[in-house]
Amino acid sequence: MKMLFLAFFLAAALNSGLAFAQTPADQDNAALAAATKWLALCDAGRYPESWQNASSFFRGAVAEKDWDAALAGVRTPLGAATSRTVKSAKSATSLPGAPDGNYVVMTFDTVFANKKAAVETVTFMQDKDGSWRAAGYFIR
Questions:
Q1: N or C: which end of the chain has fewer CB atoms below 10 A?
Q2: What is the pTM of this model?
Q3: What is d(CA 29, CA 23) in angstroms, rounded to the nearest whole number?
């Protein structure tokens, strides 16, 4: 039993060490992959699920019903997203109004059925469990 516990402890320590040893490019790639999945939920109109998959910071700042109503109000008139291209991805450890941590602020050039030139800004943060989750979303 002691060996099993020790093996688990060592594996957990190694895994957490790898998470902290990520390069900025690795962080950007991990955040971009998470953002792509999260934006797909928004594109599909699965707003409550996008809220549930957002960071604890995000969920603490916006109630699920408010998120659902706000996103429906903004996204519905735009129509379906037909294309999305990464414009930029910038790492940060500090953002205004947010706790210090690991962040990636991404912008996308997005085409919607009813708006041909939109810019989506999505901020993802690394949650305490190491997962990248949405911390902010804005369409211009």
A1: N
A2: 0.81
A3: 10
Question: How far is Cα 139 from Cα 120, in angstroms, rounded to an integer?
Answer: 4
For Cα atoms 86, 56, 136, give the angle at the middle one, nearest 5 degrees.
Answer: 30
Task: Please provide residue 121's backbone torsions phi and psi, each rounded to the nearest 5 degrees.
Answer: -115, 125
Q: For 88, phi and psi rounded to 5 degrees?
A: -160, 160
Distance CA 127, CA 34 (A): 12
Per-residue 3-state assignment (H helix, E strand, C coil) for 91-133: EECCCCCCCCCCEEEEEEEEEECCEEEEEEEEEEEECCCCCEE
